[in-house]
Amino acid sequence: FVAIACGNDHSVALRIDGTVVTWGGSSYEQRNDAPTCGGFVAIACGNDHSVALRIDGTVVTWGASSHGQRNDAPTCGGFVAIACGMHCSVGLRIDGTVVTWGRRTEGERNDAPTCGGFVAIACGSYHSVALRNDGRHEGT
C-alpha cells in the first residue's frame, strides 16, 4: 500500500498499482460502491464517504450522500489533491483554485475561497483550510 485513509467506521487503502481496497462498515455503501478499477493516485475519507483521485485528474466518490458528498461531486477533471471533512470534500485544481462539495450547513462550502493561488488543502470535521503559494492560508 502507498496510502491509507479512515472514516468513521470504514477504511480505504491505495495499492501501488493504483487500485483501492476498502474494509470496515458499509452501512452507507462505503465498501460495496468502491471503485474496482485502477488508475488512482490519492484517497481520502469523510465520516461515511470516500473520494479517490484518478491519474487523469478526475475524482470518484462513494459511500453516503445525505449531504451531497457524492451527488454534488465535480464531474470535470484538473484536480491534483483531495481532502474530506465529516460530510464534505475539497479538491485542489491544477490552476490553484479550490472546489468544495457536500455539506454546507456549518459553512464548510459557503466560505470557500473563490480565487486561485493555492498549493495545498486539508479538512477537519466541519472546516477546511487552503494554503496559498505565498505561505498565507484561508479557511472555512
Please give a structural write-up:
This protein is mainly beta and 140 residues long. The protein has strands at residues 3-6, 10-14, 20-24, 40-45, 49-54, 59-63, 79-84, 88-93, 98-102, 118-123, 128-132, 137-139. The strands form four sheets. Strands 1-2-3 form a three-stranded antiparallel beta sheet, with no helix packed on it. Strands 4-5-6 form a three-stranded antiparallel beta sheet, with no helix packed on it. It has a three-stranded antiparallel beta sheet with strand order 7-8-9, with no helix packed on it. A hairpin with a 3-residue loop joins strand 4 and strand 5. It is globular. The model has no long low-confidence stretch (mean pLDDT 93).
